[in-house]
Design a protein that fits this description.
Elements (H helix, E strand, L loop, with lengths): L1 H9 L3 H11 L1 H16 L4 H29 L1 H22 L4 H13 L4 H13 L5 H29 L2 H20 L2 H5 L16 H30 L5 H21 L7 H16 L8 H13 L1 H15 L5 H52 L40
Length: 423
């Protein structure tokens, strides 16, 4: 297992691109927490802090696919680096102005969220050209998904450290400076500078004209609801079981399960088509969330939380492969960015509906929302399976030369909706 990942990371530019992308996404992973801490330190209410964080998240969700489409048209350096700088300047504006005047604070959140660069989708567009072998992509996507769990664990700790050593304002500035440096490391690399998307058919729907894409997006919207609701339900569960670090135990177990599952999944080749494998993984994801509603004691609940995360990273890694295969030519960065958006929006919806559920029935009812989200994701995947058929496997060798920078290996312009009857 370690040898396989070691070989992947020893591939030229692979470790640099993975590390740079993770560092560049640090502001996105820590933004909501840093904004809430800063707003509270400035005397703002929890409602105001939550409102600012929500605006940041919403604008992030809107901006990712739009910036991804721009990357597909104009290349990575011309879009990602300016976007990273503008996003950081939005946070700087908030740090300098504070909460007064309030419209400026909200404008800063719009700017910071909307211009968050689509580094996640960009990295997945680069992997084929960097690795040179299509049959190694699933390992790269799995390592990518597992590494995210580390980032979402380390990021909040880094924010807390900056607050303890300096201040909430300094945390905003430091995290976003680090993010710009990470984005810079990616876009000045040769793979990023030479990458070009395939010529695309002009269409206002872009990546969304693929039926297979819509199935994956609908599925991960509900997976996002499940995971978003778990974050809130864990806090309610902790309140019912002595408070303290109980919620951290549950969320750390969930992240640890996802990390373990992603690493194991990417360490071997799996038979069959990824579309069929994704259906199996979504079944396992859904079944992992359902038992959380039992809400047993802390030890049992921690074990269930770890189990619920076990198949998340493998399913996400498999979803990356499926999106790569079903995205219309010339839309790959946009397609990956839409997947991020669907998940983020779903997570936000999950957090929103979780509050009333917890108030009505406690932590058990809150975790039932997570189970319902997982089952809804499974329902989408199974009922719409005809729109996500297995495609012919691409060649295991990716072209070299200028074509090596291109990620659109499938020739299907539109696997779900053909040009003559596009929705």
């Amino acid at each position: 297992m370690a040898a396989g990942y070691g070989q992947l990371l020893r591939t030229r530019y692979a470790a640099r691109l993975l590390a740079g992308t993770l560092v560049g996404r640090l502001p996105n992973a820590t933004g909501p927490l840093a904004v809430v801490l800063f707003a509270r330190a400035e005397g703002g209410s929890y409602a105001l802090a939550g409102g600012l964080s929500a605006v940041y998240g919403l604008c992030n969700a809107v901006g990712q696919p739009l910036l991804g489409r721009a990357v597909d048209r104009y290349g990575q350096p011309r879009i990602m680096l300016p976007a990273s700088v503008l996003s950081a300047l939005g946070m700087v504006l908030l740090a300098v102005v504070g909460l007064d005047p309030l419209p400026v604070a909200y404008a800063a959140m719009v700017m910071a969220g909307f211009f968050t660069p689509p580094l996640e989708g960009g990295l997945r567009a680069l992997w084929p050209g960097v690795l040179g072998r299509a049959d190694r992509l699933h390992a790269a996507y799995a390592l990518d998904a597992a590494a995210q769990e580390v980032m979402f664990t380390v990021g909040p700790l880094l924010v807390t450290l900056c607050v303890a050593v300096w201040s909430e304002r300094a945390a905003l500035l430091v995290i976003n400076l680090i993010g710009v440096l990470g984005a810079l490391s990616v876009v000045v690399s040769p793979p990023s500078r030479r990458w070009r998307s395939a010529p695309r058919e002009a269409h206002w729907l872009g990546a969304l004209r693929s039926g297979g894409m819509l199935v994956v997006l609908g599925t991960y919207f509900f997976v996002g609801i499940a995971l978003g609701s778990v974050a809130v339900a864990a806090v309610a569960y902790a309140d019912e079981h002595g408070g303290g670090m109980v919620s951290s135990y549950l969320l750390s177990a969930l992240s640890g399960g996802a990390l373990l599952g992603g690493v194991v999944y990417g360490a071997r080749e799996w038979p069959g088509e990824p579309e069929n494998r994704l259906r199996v993984l979504i079944v396992l994801v859904a079944l992992g969330f359902v038992p959380l509603a039992l809400a047993p004691g802390v030890l049992g609940m921690t074990l269930l939380a770890g189990l619920s995360g076990l198949f998340f990273a493998p399913s996400l890694a498999c979803a990356f492969v499926v999106v790569d295969r079903h995205a219309p030519k010339g839309t790959v960065t946009e397609a990956f960015s839409w997947l991020v958006t669907a998940f983020v929006v779903g997570s936000s919806v999950g957090m929103t509906v979780e509050g009333p559920a917890v108030e009505a029935g406690g932590a058990a009812a809150g975790f039932a929302v997570a189970g319902a989200g997982g089952l809804a994701a499974l329902a989408v995947m199974l009922t719409a399976r005809r729109f996500l058929p297995p495609l012919a496997a691409p060649s295991t060798t990716v072209a070299t030369g200028p074509a090596a920078a291109e990620n659109d290996r499938n020739d299907a312009d539109d696997p779900g909706f053909r040009t003559r009857h596009q929705a």
